[in-house]
Amino acid sequence: MNDLTFITPEINWTVLGMPAFLMIWAMLVLIVDMFTSDRRVLITLCLIGLGVTAALGALDYGLTVSGFSDMLVFDKFGVLVNWILLAGTALTLLIAFDYMPRQNLNQGEFYPLVLFATSGMLFLVQATDLVTIFIGVETLSIALYVLTGFAVPQFKSGEAAIKYLLLGGFAAGFLVYGIALIYGMTGKTNLAQIATELSTWQSTGKALDDPILLAGVGFVLIALGFKVSMFPFHAWTPDVYEGAPTPVTAYMSVATKGAAFAAMLRFLNVAFPALKPEWQLLFGLFAAATMVYGNIVAVAQSNLKRMLAYSSIAHAGYMLLGVLAASEKGISAFTVYLLAYTLTNLGAFAVLIALENRGMPVFELKDLRGLGKRSPLLALAMTVFMFSLAGVPPTAGFASKFGIFRAAWDANLDYLAIIGVITSVVSAFFYLRVIVTMWMRDAEATEPQPTYATASLSLGVLVAVIGIVAVGLLPNIFTDLAKALVLTVAQ
Amino acid sequence: MTNTNDLGFTILSLVVFLPAVGAIILAFMRGQRGAARIFALGWSTLVFAVSLPLLFNFKHDAAGLQFYEYFNWIPDWGVRYELGLDGISLWLVLLTTFVTPLAIWSAWNVEDKTNNFLMLILLQETGMLGVFLAQDLFLFYIFWEFTLIPMYFLIGIWGGKRRIYATVKFFLYTFAASVFMLIGIIALGLLNYKYLAQQGLPTDTAFQVQTLMANINQFGLSDTQLKLLFLSFFVAFAVKVPLWPVHTWLPDAHVEAPTAGSVILAAVLLKMGGYGMIRFCVQLFPQVAQEWARPIALLAVIGIIYGAVLSYAQSDIKKLVAYSSVSHMGFIVLGIFALNEVGLQGAVLQMINHGLSTGALFLLIGMVYERTHTRELADYGGLWKVVPVFVYFLLFATMASVGLPGLNGFVGEFLIMLGAFDSPIGWTFTAFAAVGVILAAVYLLKMFQGIASGPFSERRTPHLSDLTRREVAILLPLCILMLVIGLYSPYFTRPMETTIKALEAFVANAAPLIAGQ
């Protein structure tokens, strides 16, 4: 009975290192959580884990390795995006640290859950196979379903979790179905092999615009479009963002988006360069609609969380331009944009968290009145965030938008660049309204609400502000780092 | 940083960022209002002193950029940090550093959040100086947009009753117009980048104005593309100037702004539009500028007459002066698009003149408003007898603004009309512009008369006292300069002569647009 040997698969730790380490570390934190209820221990452990994960990326930075039958890859692009995601996660934990107990949500599971989600994202960013893309999407989604409903005694949080779960499940269905159709047509799940297969189609004269193949590509993109809240798959975004605990909203608005966009970049550019005219046209329309819809609807919002939700839809539109440009410039611009957006959006949500009272999740614009007098530093930070979101120099928002529009213009997507700048003006209107409310309108006569600018939150806000100014004034550091990024085509 | 001046240090960067450093120091002086005021005044005077070597070391017969300094900022995009000064920007830089201390001194009575107010003015100065000195399109755009932020807060926090409406309108109007310039900048930068790479030249100067001037004809752009690019820049500058019909933000912003804000707005901020038209619209697209000189001149002349008529119709003094700015700035655009030496010289000189005289008018209105809290012309009268020193200064500034020979306004307007007459714009437009000069006398004298003569009403204009020594000291330098420019204008036109002659030749030699391409 010993002819049955168990072959240990070869594990390439360079490739798997970042997501695997974070996953294992998260389990460790989960165990530690059973023995201590001191959240300071937990957050310290988490931050250490994130730091070590980032260092693992730095260790082999510059190498391009693929492993696990080319299902995962370790390349510069993946590491850069992973670093941004890790930084976003660290900031999320900092701003959530005092918020969760204040809202009576002091379960220690929060920390490992965030790490699980991040680990799924890192995996997704490095995925070069339809199967690994699916695993990545599901890993991050399941953790996020739980996190969305974390404030479950509150009705809205439960509602948001159910909504996200149902629609997310639906999107996962699209993803699997799309993968099945693509596999059915090409016989491959590996992105690079799909591209090779399609090029043999081209050389044998087989038509590429096969309806089943196109449907498969479309279904995968619907699923990824759902994750990044691209119009018209955005409908869940405002409700879920409003209902989820604010740090979770902040986290979802940047990290999920970043990871799903990275997957989309690889999916389109590695597997389907042959269909580029088709998806550039179709997604160009979606990108335009996303920018227009997000910004215009945001104008009508009086609830700040919903306004930021619509604004995050709009920013998905801008990031989509980088994806669509399908060039070195586009990839580099996307990476810089993701960094700028991560810092800015997390910062803006951090300010909301500092103002959020227990049991008062609904946050109206008028609550910001007189903030400039009450806590000028917080208001100043929020001002920086709003100018950065609007893309006003000398903030990161401007430098990154410049890169995105430059890439789009260079890729002959000039109409998208023009729609982009016009919608930026529209967005300036509602971002400015926040600034006007903080500095130029006095608080109503009612007693002033307290602000909770605790040490950890202030640290998070400070890091965000410094990052924004640094990217705004010295974009060269980041453009140099993100320069000449090539998506690895592993065969 | 590479530096090409004889002074041995990067003077332009120092001039640009010194005010910002002052703003940072002010941030640490919270709660010390008096000290902060004196510091801000002293610091901005220091900035003026530091900017003076620019004038004394300026080489009059060099056409190119002087005090030129640069370093490679974002090589991946082809962006350089690059500052330079020529005959066109010299006086505008000095105007900025000269007016800012006066504006700060005029804000002595701002009691609410004084430190923030002073910080914003200093930041504004950095932004404006950067606009006049940047020689890279990306850097220019950053400074250009940055100037919106301090002014937005100055109007929005310290402004009058409708301040929020005015400041949001100001911001959105100018922001909306500027984003098209951003598209133009991106397009030019990419074209230049490709061209340089194709020629095997270093691509780090893709956004540099000088390189673009030299290369733009090699890009193979069609007639229509050039015109669209021209337009993307022109709209941004036309809103800033402001040119009719995109002037509507100006009266609101001027009326609601605090005095120091109005002064900076009128004296320097509007000039950024005129400067941009010369530096970018004319230098980069000389052919289009030639072809469209007449239509643009038509808008300018309409603005001159329209601003004048509306100014006459105002009952609010500040609004009256604000509309007079629309009219006066029309002259400047007319002079620029005469595209000849005389017209361009007149335009640059008139930018300085308008800065001085309108700045002085806004200061005077602010000073009297602080005492009476009314700006209704109907409330005033008979101030001649009550506050004679105030009225002397008002008369002086009014006369300069009207264009009385012997004072500065006359020289500028005369040169502009001479230039326009002598150019393809022709005598018809010039004749209408001349009507604007007469109308200026009508509305400004109406204002002066309404304030100075007639019966005095203690009830409507209470607590009037004459100008204090501080106020006289603010106005005196402005008035002296108005007189000096009026009497001895060659001193002021001489440094810009070589630059403008070169520009005129550049425009005249530009390849004409190929019709039908």
From TrEMBL, chain B:
> What parts of the sequence cross the membrane?
6-28, 35-56, 88-110, 140-158, 170-191, 228-250, 262-286, 292-313, 320-339, 351-370, 382-404, 424-445, 472-491
**Any one annotated GO CC term:** membrane
List the subcellular locations. Answer: Endomembrane system; Membrane
Q: Recall the GO molecular function terms of this protein's record.
A: NADH dehydrogenase (ubiquinone) activity; NADH dehydrogenase activity; ubiquinone binding
Q: Which InterPro entries match?
A: NADH_Q_OxRdtase_chainM/4, NADH_UbQ_OxRdtase, ND/Mrp_TM
Q: Which residues form the NADH:quinone oxidoreductase/Mrp antiporter transmembrane domain?
A: 134-432
Its principal location? membrane
Which UniProt keywords are present, listed alphabetically? Membrane, Transmembrane, Transmembrane helix
How does the record classify its membrane topology? Answer: Multi-pass membrane protein
Which superkingdom does the taxonomy of this entry point to? Bacteria
Q: Coiled-coil annotation: which residues?
A: none
Gene Ontology BP term (one) = ATP synthesis coupled electron transport
- Please report which protein family the annotation says this sequence is part of: Belongs to the complex I subunit 4 family.
Designated name of the protein = NADH dehydrogenase
Organism name: Herpetosiphon geysericola
